[in-house]
Design a protein that fits this description.
Blueprint: H1 10-16, E1 28-33, E2 37-43, H2 63-78, E3 87-99, E4 108-119, E5 122-131, E6 134-147
Antiparallel strand pairs: 1-2, 2-4, 3-6, 4-5, 5-6
């Protein structure tokens, strides 16, 4: 599943994440250090469904989907340890979100994710999205790892009950 240097193709990503078209927003994981960091890639094409209405004549990837693409790379990282492989990674919170530049058709969105804290079933990561080396978006995200139900992707517990020690960060 994990190739040289932690590279995962889209089929390997699909084995980890429950997302499917049109909401699978990771084409490849370029680097993976399980439990520490990951780098993922999304090729943004004019054929994406969301470009039909956002915006006609001036296509821009919706910011919420840029955040989702970055979160999916974070999800792969959070689920990269063998003991978490068959869980789901729910977003428990998103802080310090900043959009620096628009993402448009033809761009390759590269997302770097670094674990800030990971304790038990909850972790906090820093995500940075870049196009052509320039930061387009960044955030901190909290993930809660939950068990998958036997009938599919739904989890048995809710991330609202999980917390990460925030210390003095607010």
């Amino acid at each position: 599943m994990i190739g040289p240097n932690g590279v995962l193709d889209v089929e390997a990503v699909r084995e980890i994440l429950p997302h499917r078209y049109p909401l699978l927003l990771v084409d490849r994981i370029l680097e993976l250090e399980p439990g520490k960091r990951a780098v993922g890639l999304k090729n943004v094409t004019i054929n994406e469904e969301f470009f039909n209405g956002h915006f006609p004549g001036q296509a821009i990837m919706p910011g919420v989907l840029v955040v989702e693409a970055m979160a999916q790379v974070g999800g792969v990282l959070m689920l990269s340890l063998p003991e978490h492989r068959h869980k789901l990674a729910y977003i428990g919170g998103i802080d310090k979100v900043r959009f620096r530049k628009p993402v448009v058709p033809g761009d390759t969105l590269i997302t770097e994710v670094e674990v800030l804290r990971f304790r038990g079933s909850t972790g906090k990561v820093r995500v940075v999205g870049r196009v052509n080396g320039q930061v387009v978006a960044e955030a901190e995200m909290i993930f809660a790892l939950v068990e998958r139900r036997k009938n599919g992707n739904q989890a048995q517990e809710s991330p609202e009950n999980s917390t990460v020690d925030e210390g003095n960060n607010q």
